[in-house]
Amino acid sequence: MAGIFSFKCSSCEEIHEGSPSFGFNAPDPYLEQSDEVKGQGKLTEDLCFYTDEDGTHYFVRAVLEIPIHGVSEPFMWGIWSSLSKASYERYVETYDCPDTGDCFFGYLSNYLPYYESTYALKLDVQPQDNNQRPQLVPHESEHQLVVDYENGICIARAQEIAEKCMHS
Ligand SMILES: [Zn+2]
To answer: How far is the CA of 19 from the centre of ligand 1 (A)?
Structure first.
């Protein structure tokens, strides 16, 4: 029967309860920009863009759920995906009333801890209703994050990833 995730942390010795959830406040490339570029761009809890010499880059925040074997709630990553200008505009236009039939192509725009570089993994961004952030569906790949998305992870590995996120 599916239970609640909880473990005694080998790093701080506390009991951590609840399925882990870790988020990024911005797409990593935005953080690498100068203050001037950032100032002329935009960053909210859900939306981001900035303009450099290559043009304007658009991003949305979304959720990637990794199932944990034997646990009801998944491991949740709050991460950013790039979007094309057209997709971003459509997303903004339908922000208050998302069309769940939409599906936008994007590239993962954060470096997740624990995994080999997750940057630029290909994804679909799928809008959700009920004020939920869009769900990410990675394209097929041998990358460990994508394998974990498809197969789920065991409790021991969920614990290992959570400890890395919380304490490093
Ligand atoms: Zn801990």
So the answer is: 13
Which tens digits make up the pLDDT trace of 137-152?
999 999 999 999 999 9
Ligand 1 centre distance from Cα of residue 10 (Å): 7
CA angle 48, 50, 54 (to 5 degrees): 135
What is the residue extent of each domain of the chain?
6-167
How far does residue 160's CA lie from ligand 1's centre (Å)? 10
Distances (CA, A) of 15 to 6, 11, 163: 7, 11, 11
- Residue 1 is predicted with a pLDDT of 55
Between the CA of 97 and the centroid of ligand 1 the distance, in Å, is 39
